[in-house]
What does this fold into?
Amino acid sequence: MSETPVKEARPQVAGTRPAGASDERSAANEVRKMFTDIAPRYDLLNHLLSLNIDKLWWRRTARSFDSILSAQDAQVLDLCCGTGDMTLALVREAARRGGQPRVIGADFSHAMLQRARDKFAGGSASAIEADALALPFGSDRFDLVTSAFGFRNLANYDKGLAEIHRVLRTGGEVGILDFGEPKGAIGVGYRIYFRHVLPRVGTMVSGVRGPYAYLPASVERFPAPEQMLARMRAAGFSEVSWAPYTFGIAGLYRGKK
It folds into this structure.
């Protein structure tokens, strides 16, 4: 896997810090509260605000790991799974490839996970309530760990990467799908939409202001690709790479243990 060179620099940050949060614990509490508040309308708003492109991103990410998902006994963890859409994309790709991995979706928001469990009912995925910074799994367990639009919300990015590295088996892979900031004319239009239009629509539909004001701020705070790749290397990952999706609006970080 080749790295994508990116020259932009940003200040080094520990993790997300929603308004009113001063440390890791308060940041985690604020994030949990936000997702509890928006859980009832979360799926609707995701699809509406992304014009359904989010579904393409999940599928593309899942297909990036088809060699693992085609196995009969692979262990897969979808971290910060929310309402479970990335988890189900992994399950569907495995079925398409004839694989039978065990796929677990994990999230620390009870309200979000309840909706994931409803989606998983009768299928092959399971759900567990867990904190990404202190996972309840033994070391060297999983062949693949993914996270779609959730890693950015961790109160400590380096601790999150360390936990992912710990629970992966040697040779296992990580895939982190998250938002980015596109460049050029597309980036200008996107930033206007992301900073002004999206928060207003999100607030109007959900009835909750905080989370949709937080979203653009959290993306701006998130490490730029070259910084994220450096953090992945520092956590022990090799063959790290970043692949932009849809002009860099989102992107997939990959690495191996």
Summary: The domain at 24-181+222-256 is CATH 3.40.50.150 (Rossmann fold). The mean pLDDT is 92. Residues 99 and 218 are 36 Å apart (CA to CA).
